[in-house]
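Aim 2 progress. For DUF1015 domain-containing protein, the working sequence is reproduced below.
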Amino acid sequence: MKTFKEADILLPGKEVNMEKWSVIACDQFTSEPEYWEEVKKFASDSPSTLDMILPEVYLEQENHEEQLKNIEASMNKYLREKVFTEYKDAMIYVERTDSVGNVRAGIVGKIDLEQYDYSKKSTSFIRATEATVAERIPARVEIRNNAVVELPHVMLLVDDAGKHVIEPCEQEKEHLPLLYDFDLMMGGGHLCGYLLGKEEKKRIEKALTFLADPRCFADKYHVKNRPVLLFAVGDGNHSLAAAKAYYEQLKAAHPDEDLSEHPARYALAEVVNLHSPALQFEAIHRIVTGVHVEDLLSKMNAALHIKKEGKGQTFYTIYNGKKKKCVIERPTSKLTVGSLQRFLDGYLAQNGGKIDYIHGEEVVESLAREKDSIGFILPDMGKEELFPTVIHDGALPRKTFSMGHAQDKRYYTECRKIRK
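Predicted structure tokens for this construct:
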């Protein structure tokens, strides 16, 4: 069975203002309610995906039940009023121009959740790239429980150095039907989508089949008898985990029914080549507060055999206004962030304190000036490290890397029915 395949994709009709329709992923700008208030004002007089999602900035509000009912009502209203046009058995070639002008290409289709497992030591075709926080799943499952359609912000990465899966679509796009072409709101860049034809879909299937061949996989990663990893979840880990959890709950609630063709077995996602020049990995740094810094450093030095110079996994500490280089002599992970995170998790569990995850070295430097605080500056992760690390170590520590700035994340555009 194919892991990635055609889907019955819903798009708004031509009369809908697409700039007002498309909204950034719900897990962005979680500390900036003013961003979402601006989105509300901008999209208020037009059909919008904003009506069918719950931005996480509002998760703690008391009117939770009302929010869920409004989402369900909006989905049913848009279906009833025929806001959508359905494209049967479709795949869409997407070109996303980000906020600085880079073009990221992808293909939208559906994945089989039977071939996805988000557990740490998963051996499935589709695997999470970061540790899944169980507490973040129920809220998303609750939305999906009553939803009649899904809106994806999931991005799957494929390790296609030869550029055989996605990139050939660019040469064919002038012959393909153009489905949408518009500027994204709030400085998000631009989005184009083209409906792929039968021959392109066959070529994509053939290219993915080659990448999924166990012999090809073993040669590429220099491994033997390891289960094939075809797709790594680059963005939307928790949303995809929620789709999987909902599907498993559905199966458990209907043990005597054949759900093999149920729409909830699948999830809409965009596949992007790991080797796209527009795809940039940025480090996410750490700030630890409420700790005895000297004690933490002493135990860290003992656990990881920290040196001041040399080759190996390297990071920097910032405290008392000083920045110091640290080289790990005894790593516990293939990645610097993995070795450090494992130590910090253990230390904080035993000694208390709080950890936060920070974009930007300057912010870490500022926060590390506070009493009983220490910052950790981590190196950018090389894209070539992602698949080998997930294959050998399983899902990476949470907040290992970020793929671009918040405004460059995936916007909700395509939808799909998830109920019969």
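Residues 4-279+404-417 form one domain. This observation will guide construct design in the next reporting period.
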